[in-house]
Amino acid sequence: MQGMQVSFSSMIRVGDGPETIHVRASSIDELMHALLLRYPDLQGHIDRGVAVSINGQIFRDDWTVSIPEDAEVYLIPRIEGG
Known about the structure:
Layout: E1 3-8, E2 20-24, H1 28-38, H2 43-48, E3 50-54, E4 57-59, E5 72-77
Parallel strand pairs: 1-5
Antiparallel strand pairs: 1-2, 3-4, 3-5
């Protein structure tokens, strides 16, 4: 399980939490679990829908995706298209 820097969109940050944190996870699912352990209030954002950007590629539904070591990871609000 590798460590990575995770950055939050300004619309996802929880309280006075940091904009960027260090997390150890090897998949999006592990990442979400690790984030919820630290920031339980993040659950509301996840329930409304978030997407994860890994090295510029956005993942919305498949949380089994592996996260490469030293990846650039961002949590962003999920935007529904119409």
